[in-house]
Amino acid sequence: MPKSKRNRPVTLSKTKKKGREHKENVVNSIRDAVEKYDSVYVFSFENMRNLKFKEFRERLKSSSRFFLGSNKVMQVALGRSVADEISSGLHKISKLLRGDSGLCFTSLPKEEIQRLFDEYEDYDFARTGSTATETVELKEGPLDQFTHEMEPFLRKQGMPVRLNKGVVELVSDFVVCEEGKPLSPESARILRLLGIKMATFKLHLICRWSSEDFEVYKEGLEDSDVESS
């Protein structure tokens, strides 16, 4: 790798949330990773599930290291321009750290990383505010999947139910959620009770940097997005 500029002093006076010392530790850890690993990827994520991500990270623990957190701190660590990047071309990676994203440092071949990220997905129950992926409507009649003890709770979720000879009964058709619309807290709870999973936790590779080259994977990113300012 080219000569490192990682010892250049860095100003973190604007980052207050977790404390200056923590931010500096993150910066130093990222700069150490630049030297240790062959390449670094920016990735984005949908419907993050911390436990599932921890499992994915553990699978790659021997060959890779992941960073999630403040994009600004990660950008400071890498350098945001040619003038302050810690290794040639890293400012291009920095410019693509946007929104829900993170860094993956690895020594695995790029084909292996692409395969692992492309193949990974995990389904889970959607949370309040998530967009419904389908319309779910319950028809009038008995709801055999629920015990009679559930009837008061279901009523609190807005469902028109009653007990009929110990069986929970829907007295009229009920729309739990509509495709394309955000889920209310009640809708999210009912979907969980019904066992309907609408959230897919996925990871997407955005770009890759190594000392030899730089690649952008995500469609729609123009060359101007990674040009130095």
Structural overview:
By secondary structure, the chain is an alpha+beta fold. The chain has 7 helices and 11 strands. The chain has helices at 20-36, 50-59, 71-78, 90-95, 110-119, 151-156, 185-194; strands spanning 39-46, 64-68, 101-106, 121-124, 136-138, 141-142, 161-164, 167-170, 174-177, 199-210, 214-216. The strands form 3 sheets. Strands 1, 2, 3, 4, 10 and 11 form a 6-stranded antiparallel sheet that branches. Strands 6-8-7 form a 3-stranded antiparallel sheet. A hairpin with a 3-residue loop joins strand 10 and strand 11.
Gyration radius, in Å: 24 Å
Total of helices: 7
Mean pLDDT: 86
The rough form would be described as: elongated
Q: What oligomeric arrangement do these chains adopt? A: single chain
- Biggest sheet overview: 6 strands, antiparallel
Estimate what percentage of residues fall within beta strands.
Answer: 15-25%
Low-confidence stretches: 220-224
Summing up helix and strand content along with how strands pair, one would put the structural category as alpha+beta
Number of strands: 11
N-to-C order of helices and strands: HEHEHHEHEEEHEEEHEE
Helix content: 25-40%
Q: Report the end-to-end length measured between terminal Cα atoms.
A: 24 Å
Main location: cytoplasm
Family: Belongs to the universal ribosomal protein uL10 family.
Subunit structure: Associates with the pre-60S ribosomal particle.
Pfam families: Ribosomal_L10, RL10P_insert
